[in-house]
Amino acid sequence: MQDASSDRPANIVNILNTDDGKESAGIYTYQVGKGVGLEGDLGATFVVLKPGTRFSPPYARESCDELIFCLAGEGLVWQDGQTYTLSPGDCGGWKSGTGISHTLINDSNGSGQEGSDLLIFLVYETRPEVTEAIYWPFGPPESPEGRSVANQWSNPPPRGDIAMHPALPRKPLSGEPVDVPHPRLEYRATNIVNGPDSTDSVGQGELAAEATSLSQETSLSGRFGCNLEILAPGCRSSDPHAHSLEDEIVYVISGRGLLWMNGIVYDIGPGDAIGFPAGTGIAHTIINDSSEEDGEDLALLVVGQNKRDEGDLVYYPLHKEKMFTFVRWWFDAPQHDLGPHNGRAARYKDD
């Protein structure tokens, strides 16, 4: 079996170790999608909020779905004037066109050890082809934190009265303390879920996983899919494949594994983001190559566009027998020479 290559391709970026992002007013953002070579309408942003900051003034989007996944820290989801606690593994989704306004707040007081009070999360979204209209329930800001001003969405669906929370931290990074209500603890809005608590066993053998569709759990429209997948030792995320139309992006939450691309493997671990642009014919899968005796699970966020209705096709270079039964076979996929790795774990899990 081939050893992992030490030469990382440009479509792998460790977003925990890059300094290519931008910081303003206590908010750090890094455009993950662009960093891993995606240029389509699937956006991914890595965000770090210092104590006393918020992601933006509350907003609702007319035409773009949005999903956030908390990686580290404790914070609040502000939604239509109510707040809900946010912890690692929690996820929130907002379907476009609903008028549900929202933002994220780091409400900690900054008294912990350096770095322990940061709120860190990923934001996935579909991006519009033209300037999008946004509803600002407290009025459009002059310069929203970390977001460019968009057209004002003047007629969103009615949502009733906004509750009393002003969508500000108790102790802003700059300014005087604010008297705010406590978060709701007795229940959560249905579009806010804990990812690991929502997983179930899927697949068999080396394709087995504990997984869930976070985009479905949070009732998004289906323009993109976001899956939480936890691979046991000896398992892989899929048969090696390439899409004709659908961009994909994978983020490693925890554990270590191998990225397989056209027969070459690369070591990956926590913080790594990997982009797979559509149309290249470059096939890929993620492998947990550790052993059951001393290995660990590999937890991934797998996000991809949904363009089946537009004719997305799939090519499986190691499973060409699928062309006779798989109706979406990509017959004219660009061809590439494959490296020596067979796309499976060294001790792959049997059925």
TrEMBL record:
Cited Pfam families: Cupin_2
Gene3D superfamilies noted in UniProt: Jelly Rolls
Annotated ranges, domain Cupin type-2: 46-110, 228-292
Alphabetical keyword list: Metal-binding
Protein name as it appears in the record: Cupin type-2 domain-containing protein
Positions of region (Disordered): 143-170
GO molecular function annotations of the record: metal ion binding
Keyword Hydrolase: no
CDD domains: cupin_SPO2919-like
Keyword Metal-binding attributed: yes
